Amino acid sequence: MSLLVVGLSHRSAPVSVLERAALSADAQVKLLQDTLAAEPAAEGAVLATCNRIELYADVDKFHAGVAELSTLLALHSGVGLEELTPHLYVHYEDRAVHHLFSVACGLDSMVVGEGQILGQIKDALATAQELHTAGRLLNDLFQQALRVGKRAHSETGIDRAGQSLVTFGLEQLSAGQAVEAWAKGKKALVIGAGSMSSLAAATLARVGVGEIVIANRTPDRAERLAEILTGGDDTDVLARAVPMESVPVELTRADIAVSCTGATGLVLTAETVAAAVEGRTGTPAALRETPQAPAAHLAPADACPLDLSAVQGATGFSVMGEAAVAGMDAATLEQHAAWVDKGTGTVPRRDVRRTPGEDAEADADLIAALAAAAATVGRIPERRRPEPVAEAPRPAPVLALLDLAMPRDIDAAVHRLLGVRFVDLETLAEASADAPMAADVDQVRRIVSDEVAAFGAAQRAAHITPTVVALRAMAADVVANEIARLEGRLPDLDDKQRGEITQTVRRVVDKLLHAPTVRVKQLAAEPGGAGYADALRTLFDLDPETVAAVSRAENNTENAKNRGRA
């Protein structure tokens, strides 16, 4: 087995990179086709969700496989290889199996324990089968991953460790309130009708919203989803379908909007959302700026705390003296001097020689003027301190937006709109980092480890099966040839005698081969047992092409069965 997975997820890459690397349905098809065309890969499958992009392949060379798969991911995602490489992870053979089984159980999800990943794995397998890019290895792997995921959910309480991404998003939107109480009676708009949007609609119906409007580019899918919601026995929600062109109008009526489409551009711009909430908050729906304290600045000319005309003719007085009379420190008065130097006010200094008496008289006049100014306007530092800035109260949110698309459907700038609460995948990633782990997670990890060991043993045993089949075919040919030779030597044998001899020879051959073939399968199932197939071929001089033909025949049969299941 040479299973290789190369990928990136919310654990290895920021949402901004995941968003740019998201693969459309067409891009996934082309990626799989190019993977099979690449020399190192014999099989391929793509698992692409809102928070992961992974390429699985059966390769014959590890290093060449990593290089080829990484290059293909970069090529089809549109993110340069140099930028993408630091965010990629690589798993090989048993580690790759362990990774997929963990993903299937929800252990590697953004919300631990969520169950919709099973549907996404099933879709990935169906796509690979449809394109004939999944051979025996990937068919077995993905089928077993689905069984392991179902086992984890049925045998443990992993469901209690987390919930669906939709439920987690609604919890973030409700801001601490019980989701049912927060959502009860609200009007919801769901944009898209795919698997995630359908899950969002069903979740909204379950938590008690009063009305759900489904908008989708394909009207039939939206109408079908609306029919399913309306016809449900466990809810009494009103549901209807509308064309995508009606989204701006429906948004003006909605309390909650969830978007998850496959669009490559924005579905909801900030301007569209602003128009939808205009007038609903009692304030204009303009983008709010982050409040900042105003920069300290000098007072305008008409607000200078000193009577400049009173000291305009003074010369030669000290800053320390002025500060003492004005009731402020020297540094503050020097700040006032800077205000003067910038040209807002001017104090012409006349270099006129005066007598000591004139100096004393001028100083007395100056001190009197400064004292009068201080008495009139108070302490200067208090006049110059910036007034505290009071942030205007924000209105309660009137529209809750949940963006589950990758790349994003909703302009991230909407978080600055008054009256809007916005949650996207980046928000959920940050919130889930601190989410508590359930005790059942350890039990699920043990299940994964056991299943990985069993899968590896089964694959190693299956690897030797074509060799054993070829050996038994060779033995059957030997028996047939010897019976034919015996008939030539003993032509008088009747049918009963001939049948008894043939049966005896076959039993002898079967008994001789039984113990070695059973034992070699057991040995091959153990770690490092792949060499037993080569040993068997060498010991019995088996034709490699015969073994390969048996293997191809088994793969074709298995693939036909798997396509029938899909």
Global geometry:
elongated
How much of the sequence is in beta strands? 5-15%
Oligomer: single chain
Question: What distance lies between the first and last C-alpha atoms, to the nearest angstrom?
Answer: 24 Å
Low-confidence stretches: 289-328, 343-353, 379-385
Radius of gyration: 39 Å
Helix content: 55-70%
For the residues shown, what is the average pLDDT? 78
Based on helices, strands and strand pairing, what is the structural class? alpha/beta
Contiguous helical run count? 24
Folded structure, characterized:
- The chain has 566 residues and is of the alpha/beta class.
- The protein has 24 helices and ten strands.
- The chain has helices at 15-21, 25-37, 62-77, 81-84, 94-104, 117-130, 136-155, 158-161, 165-174, 179-183, 195-207, 219-230, 247-253, 270-277, 308-311, 319-326, 330-341, 356-377, 380-384, 425-432, 440-489, 495-525, 531-539, 544-565; strands at residues 3-9, 41-49, 52-59, 89-92, 187-191, 211-215, 238-242, 256-259, 399-403, 420-423.
- The chain has a six-stranded parallel beta sheet with strand order 7-6-5-8-9-10, sandwiched between helices. A four-stranded antiparallel beta sheet has the order 2-3-1-4.
- Helix 5 (94-104) crosses helix 7 (136-155).
- The two termini are 24 Å apart.
- Mean pLDDT is 78; it is low at 289-328, 343-353 and 379-385.
Brief summary:
This protein is of the alpha/beta class and 566 residues long.
